[in-house]
Amino acid sequence: MNAAEKILIIDDEPQMRMNLRALLEDIGYQVLEAGSGPEGLERAASARPDLILLDVRMPGMDGLEVCARLKADSDLRPIPVIFLSGVLEAQEKVRAFQAGGVDYVTKPFHFEEVEARVRTRLDLGQAQRRLEAQNRTLQSALAETETLNRKLIGMNERLRQSEALKSQFLATMRNEINNPLNAILALTMELEKGGIPPDRARMIGALVATEACGLDFQIRNIFCAAELEAGDASPHASTVDAGAVLQDAIDALSHQAEARAVQVNLAGAAAGADFCTDPGMLRAIAVNLLSNAIKFSPEGGAVQARLRRVGPALELEVEDAGRGIRAEDQALIFEPFRQLQGGPARAHQGQGLGLSVVQALVDLLGGQIAVASEPGRGARFTCTIPERQPQDPTRSSSAEGNTLYFGETEEID
Questions:
Q1: 357, 225 in Cβ contact below 8 A?
Q2: How far is CA 93 from the centre of its chain?
C-alpha cells in the first residue's frame, strides 16, 4: 500500500464519516471528509484523491449527481467511486453504475468488506496508471522507432539513388574522358610517325591542346565536386587581383572559345583588383560560368564578362547570346548532372556539374548567384561575393554532403 494514497469520504452523516475515517486511518490511508455533495466536489477538485467513498442518499445534491459531475470533469473522471448506501434496489444499483460508480457497499457494512473493496479498487487504479504509463512509453518508443525507420528508409533511398547515379556518372565519364584521351593519343601517335607538314603539325598541336584543356577542365570539376561532397572544401582567403584571376580563367578557355569562334569580351577587370577572397574558388566560379557561356553561345557569337565592386562585395557577371533558359528551368540548372537537353542526341557534352559547382562555391564564400534569361535572348549569370578577411575559413561544406553530387537527377528532353 502506498502511504500517500488519499481517500475522500462524502457523506452527510458525521458518525458514518468518523467510523470510516478511523478504520481507514488505522489501515494507513490518508482520509479527507466532506459533509455534502458540493463540498465533496470542491474537496475532490483541490485534493485529487485516489478513491472516493460516496453516500448515495444525501439531501440536496445526492451521490448520483455528485458522481455524474465527477465523471463529467476530465481531470476528476479517472478517480474511482465506491457508493455507500443502505440496501439498494436493483434499479438504484443500475443508476449508480450508469453514473460512473465502480462498486458499492451497503450499510451497515463490515469493515473487512470495506477494506477489501477499497484495496481492490486502489490496486486496480495503480495497475491502470502503470499500464497507461507503459502505454505512453511504448507509444513514445514506437514514434521514435517510426522516425528512425523513416530516416533509415530515406537514407537507403539516397544510397540507392547515389549508387545508381554513380554508375550512370561513371558510364558518362568514361566517354567524357576516353573520347578526348583517345583523340590525344591518336594525334600524338600521328606526330610520332614524323614527316608531317608544318601546317598539319600546328593543327594537330592545336587539337591536342584543345582536347587536353577540355579534359583538364572536366577533371578539375570532378575533383572539386568530390571535395564538396565529402565536406573537405573550405575557403582560404587572401588578397588577389580579381581582374587577373578572371583574365586567367578566360585564357584557360581560349582553345574552347577558338574552337567555336566565340569572342570573350572582358570589361571592368581593373575594378576587381586587390580583393580578398579564395582565389582558387573565384577562378573555378569564373571558369565554369565562362565555359558554360561559350558552350551555349552560337558559333561566331560573343560572351560578355564584367567585373565590378558593389560596396564591400565583388560582382562577377557573365552573359551569352545563346538560346536562353525558360523561367521554369532556371532553378533546375543548378542541380548536379542536370542538362536541359538530355539523351544521346544532346548537342552539348559534359557532366552537368558546372553550375552546381558554381552554386556550391558561391555558397561557401557567403555569396549569391542569380540568373536572368529569356528563351532566344541568351542568359546572364551574376555572382555577388562578399569580401573576406585574410585566412578567414568561414563555414565549410557539410561533412554530411548537403549538396548531393551523386544523388538523384534527371535529364530533360
A1: yes
A2: 59
- 257 within 8 A of 216, measured Cβ to Cβ: no
Question: Which domains does the chain possess?
Answer: 6-109 (3.40.50.2300), 172-386 (3.30.565.10)
Q: What is the pTM of this model?
A: 0.51
Backbone angles phi, psi at 242, to 5 degrees: -60, -35
What are 266's three cell numbers? Answer: 572582358
Instruction: Identify whether the C-beta of residue 23 lies closer than 8 Å to the C-beta of residue 111.
Output: yes
CA distance 143 to 61: 46
Q: Which one-letter amino acid corresponds to residue 331?
A: A
Asked whether 260 and 299 are in contact (CB, 8 A), the reply is yes
CA 362 – CA 210 distance, rounded (Å): 28
**Mean pLDDT lowest for which of 150-164, 188-202, 213-227?**
213-227
Q: Which neighbouring-strand residues pair with 142? A: none
Per the DSSP assignment, residues forming a β-bridge with 105 are 84
Q: What is the pLDDT of residues 235-249, one digit of tens each?
A: 888 998 998 999 999
CA distance linking residue 99 with residue 77, whole number of Å = 11
**What is the spatial order of strands in the sheet that 30-34 belongs to?**
30-34, 6-10, 51-55, 81-85, 103-106
Write out pLDDT tens, residues 73-116: 988 998 999 988 876 667 777 888 888 888 888 777 778 888 88
CA dihedral of residues 207, 213, 218, 221 (deg, nearest 10):
-170
Record the cell numbers describing residue 41, joined without a space: 466536489
CA distances (Å), 19 to each of 1, 16, 111, 279, 282, in order? 21, 5, 9, 93, 91
**pLDDT for the residue numbered 61:** 92
